[in-house]
Amino acid sequence: MKFWDIRSPNEPVICRMEHSHWVWKIRINRFHDQLVLTSSSDSRVILSSIPSVSSEPYGHMVNDDAAITTTIEESVNDKKLDDGVIGKYEEHEDSVYAAEWSSADPWTFASLSYDGRLVINKVPRKYKYKILL
Hints:
By secondary structure, the protein is α+β, with helices and mostly antiparallel strands. The protein has a domain at about 20-55 and about 80-125. The protein is built from 2 helices and 9 strands. It has helices at about 65-75, 125-130; strands at about 1-5, 15, 25-30, 35-40, 45-50, 85-90, 95-100, 110-115, 120. A 4-stranded antiparallel beta sheet has the order 3-4-5-6, with no helix packed on it. A hairpin with a 4-residue loop joins strand 8 (about 110-115) and strand 9. It is globular and about 40 Å long. It comes from Fopius arisanus.
């Protein structure tokens, strides 16, 4: 999986290899574009967080005027989320050809494998709060 900056197309900004076989689908979350979902013929779905190429600046959703938010910010946001895998889902027994984010909930996604198995998962809560706060 490669991420490019169109201002300098000579080389990718980031190149990641989490799967051991062909990647069939890459989906970026519409609401939080640092969340990237991939499905592959290695029977896995991988959820990655790539904040280094996100359009959301780090900590932009924090309201500095609220005392409660400041307390939460200190406890959760002091550990910035780095680029990397935040979830590996291995519930499928065959190649996973489709993966999609929910249109109703930005934290829910589904995957469909060749054998017809549909699996629904959510972004882990601890990563959800690191993104939001």
